Amino acid sequence: MNPLRVLIVDDEEELVSALVERLNLRGFQAKGVTAGEAALELLEAEEYDVMLLDVKMPGLGGLEVIRRVKNRKPGLEVVLLTGHGSVKSVEEGMALGAFDYLMKPVKIESLIGILT
After folding, report:
1. CA 114 → CA 35, 41, 80, distances in Å?
2. pTM metric for this prediction
3. Which of 13, 16, 49, 57 would bridge 32 by S-S if both were Cys, CB 3.0 to 4.6 A apart?
């Protein structure tokens, strides 16, 4: 079976690096970017099964990214990441097509549980 392909999108570079490393060590095929625009470009060039997406980012925010992604790739599963406890943003993201969310700091066990 092919490994699950995961794209991590968060403006916190250290978080992205840590999650990519931990997921790759656990047999996933993970890649990360730190901007919404970079995520959209990567999604045009490569295929992913799941995107972990920060809700609040400078520039193109997570909610706008999910709007654009779901129009182009409706089968891509999206898990929202939020550190702000913004229930309204999470609710809006879920309404736009996200299937789950995680609060930061992300517990790797919780993330693995969602992905498997």
Report:
1. 23, 25, 11
2. 0.95
3. 16
